[in-house]
Structure to design on (798 residues):
């Protein structure tokens, strides 16, 4: 397949992460290496900016600005939660033609991959010669085909640190503490809370994942047993936990244009579980709930450098593959490699339709048989992604 | 006053902070310098451990352990929320006599200072020759006499970073975002959110402090005006905001033994305000609330090094003052100094009864005339305490 010359456009979509700008900067810097790419435009707020030609010329940015942007959390171009209609996509092709755009890079999750896929199909139908590549990001880590997603490691690090601090807080002032963690369908982020444990009685003591039907009676018994055992209890629970019939334990009822119901941005689930413990666990005192909220995806300075490097590489790989490779479209995936027991990874491309729309859940071998914890296999999986964590200092442990 | 020889005991009380262990380690290391102090004991869970002789010998800890503990958030000895009765304090004197304890250091807030004060008065009545020193800590920054409190700067840094990330998140996906921040009576911590602003349209756009009566109509108008102006709105609100009649806007009704009502550990206030905006502000979409919760006081790695150094120094100063000085009791205070416009501080002692029980609110010159923001004077006050913050990278700003 011959290389095509023209301009490129890149956009960001879906919930931001701490390293989504690394992918953006990786793509911008890589694009400067190819004479096939004239200008690299940035679309403000993804699809929204594309449809209104709200573009900025990223070729004009200085290396200093780009490096500062790369270290800044959230989506520097702005993001969007908008499902592309066929009509939208037809308009898009017109915008691409108007700006001689032959390369389209779209950073986001599975909904974003779906948009890229629709655009790809339509462009082929219109016989417009161009290339489209999805660059993955999601703190939920719920994309198929890839070992893990850029953005996940940094969010996992935030959650691990938050639970590490919260476990110490709970050890200092005993009680029951519930922490609600993001993750709509997949428990990868909630499971990462287990990285907080460094000593036998460290929390989280109980972990509830969306993959396991949430049974209130079982939950109450678990908390009571933990209190009986160590006199305190730290609980990590996914915002996406569902009842045995599949309905969410708690939801505001609000939906976005992809049909996703709002789970984040409210303390309702935490407060619901907190009241449940207050009412049903007689030994419980000082019951508190925190919802970790949007800080999980956009806290400045808390990021995994492993994740940041992979996010940067994914952006660069997308550009390189579309310019030099023989695919007209695709999505970037990560393959885990190991050498002498040390973590490593490499990138590869796969078809958009294998990732678009679908979500991935935690595999059974990552969930404990008891259903209220993760396994050692999961910890082996997540530990290198979240990067080294601080070692907790403790008194009275002997020499 | 002659120096007295004997053992010392130290305890931690009240809500933990990220640097309360710095004060602990500062006191332990300083105590090793004096032959007047034999053993330095640590009381587990403050008053609780003192009353049950649950003590550990801190003299036995290695420097490596102590330095690791100093960098670890939360109270390494465990904490307590227990108001000392006269009966408790009489028992305490017996414990002190049994262990030949002549120095008592108690790290905590104004309730802790009150306990230290009661113990001091009783010991004098019993004619037991000993010295008691309160070492301040509180993220609320609500102690009198001192310019600011150890623990505040680190929490202020956390809040500033959280709002910085959240403002970027809100800029990427527009809407109304409410962040509920700790601070029962004083708005110092909520006000620190203003440090997140680096550009003209950066949030937080509205700040509600406990010092200003919260008027719902006014709040609704403020949010509507902000949306009209910039199409989005980030709001920092104290958990302690009260209605014009003085009652809290939202509370669970639960109280601790000091009579403090539970404000933290629930998302109820955020959800209440969120629903208010959804119902009353017609232009509002995507309304979300997060309660920053316990992460504000115990997040590993997020601390101000200025605060950490002052906390360490406060612990050391307490020991030095009690051994070398001519006071039998006191509380450590910080005085701000400046040299060529650069921030500096020095420590001094004052009487326990000047700090015990009382709380300090934000002075009028720190609150904007509009009542929904802080002033430049407040930013000058808080900026050096929170330490340097990262610079936000932005695209499309021109060369």
């Amino acid at each position: 397949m011959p290389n095509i010359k023209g301009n490129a456009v890149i956009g960001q979509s879906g919930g931001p992460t701490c390293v989504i700008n690394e992918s953006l900067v990786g793509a911008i810097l890589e694009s400067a290496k190819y004479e096939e790419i004239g200008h690299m435009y940035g679309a403000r707020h993804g699809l929204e900016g594309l449809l209104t030609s709200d573009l900025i010329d990223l070729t004009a940015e200085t290396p200093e600005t780009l490096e500062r942007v790369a270290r800044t959390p959230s989506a520097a171009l702005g993001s969007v939660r908008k499902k592309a209609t066929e009509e939208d996509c037809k308009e898009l092709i017109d915008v691409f033609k108007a700006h001689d755009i032959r390369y389209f890079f779209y950073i986001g999750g599975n909904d974003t991959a779906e948009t890229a896929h629709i655009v790809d199909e339509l462009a082929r139908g219109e016989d417009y010669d161009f290339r489209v590549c999805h660059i993955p990001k999601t703190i939920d880590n719920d994309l198929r085909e890839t070992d893990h997603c850029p953005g996940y490691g940094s969010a996992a690090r935030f959650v691990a640190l938050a639970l590490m601090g919260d476990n110490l807080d709970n050890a200092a002032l005993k009680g029951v503490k519930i922490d609600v963690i993001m993750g709509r369908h997949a428990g990868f982020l909630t499971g990462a809370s287990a990285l907080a444990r460094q000593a036998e009685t460290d929390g989280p003591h109980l972990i509830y994942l969306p993959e396991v039907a949430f049974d209130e009676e079982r939950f109450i018994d678990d908390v009571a047993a933990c209190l009986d055992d160590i006199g305190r209890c730290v609980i990590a629970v996914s915002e996406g936990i569902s009842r045995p019939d599949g309905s969410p334990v708690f939801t505001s009822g609000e939906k976005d244009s992809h049909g996703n119901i709002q789970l984040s941005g409210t303390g309702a689930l935490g407060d619901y579980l907190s009241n449940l413990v207050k009412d049903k666990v007689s030994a419980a005192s000082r019951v508190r709930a925190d919802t970790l909220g949007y800080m999980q995806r956009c806290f400045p300075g808390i990021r995994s450098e492993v994740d940041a490097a992979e996010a940067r590489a994914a952006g660069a790989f997308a550009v390189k593959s579309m310019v030099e490779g023989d695919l007209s479209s695709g999505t970037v995936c990560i393959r885990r490699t190991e050498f002498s027991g040390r973590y490593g990874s490499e990138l590869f491309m796969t078809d958009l339709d294998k990732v678009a729309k679908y979500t991935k859940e935690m595999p059974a071998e990552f969930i404990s048989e008891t259903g209220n914890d993760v396994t050692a296999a999961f910890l082996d999986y997540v530990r290198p992604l979240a990067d080294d964590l601080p070692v907790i200092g403790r008194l009275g442990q002997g020499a």
Observations:
- Residues 155-301+361-386 of chain B form a domain with the Rossmann fold fold (CATH 3.40.50.460).
- The first strand of chain B starts at residue 6 and ends at 12.
